[in-house]
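Example record

The entry below shows one chain as it appears in the dataset: sequence first, then structure tokens.
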Amino acid sequence: MSEDNIKRRARGLDRAFDILDFLKEVGQPLRPNDIAKGVGSPKSTVYELVESLLERRILEPVGRDGHVFLGRQLYFLGQAHLRHFDLSREADQALQDIVAQTGETAQMCLLNGRKYTVALMKEGERHFRISSDIGENAPIPWTASGRLLLGHLSDEQIVELIDEGDFILPGGERLPLARFLGEIRQASEEGFFSFDSVADTFTHCFAAPVRDEHGVCVCTLCIVAPRADAQANYRHYRQVLLDSADRLARRIND
């Protein structure tokens, strides 16, 4: 295969993943024409890729108006991944333990490219929901986990990774870069970070790193709690989270 053909296929793969990511973000079926507008690719290219993805059941038709959405083959691929991904299995038990000890919502969080995402979650014992959806991307600077997940990167790498607009917080104010970098270094040194959520005025977020054998934070375990309860139980929640993250790290690194 020529170098030009390899590059064309690579670009096609990039655009196919753009389509899948866009549909995940939108969360509803769309026509190929609307997908092309959303991902900024030529209509002819998107129609060709959509047809190929439909043939492989990566996408599925929805209704009679040409809409498509994520297909069941992705579910089977995800299940195959989980069967061979020890972190997910072990983290699921860790989250159950955290909920049992605190009654609060517990999450496992990861980097997803330039964004942060909740990969696993166990709801707390409250009658109302205070957490984000699994798989929903969020700007890294908005999160407690982001301060830990970036700890292995240099300042220059962090600046290059994060989209400029992601430093604008939900209230419209801009998070100073120097403050953000300082919090990353502090969180990395202390092995813990917590703050009042910037996404709402109700919750407090706790995060502890799960590190690999090289000391890199591969994910975080988190507790999301109402601010009053977080303040009243701060030391307990912090210790439960640190102990759980430490046990999870030892299990996956054995």
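Notes for this example: The longest helix spans residues 3-26. The longest strand covers residues 217-226.
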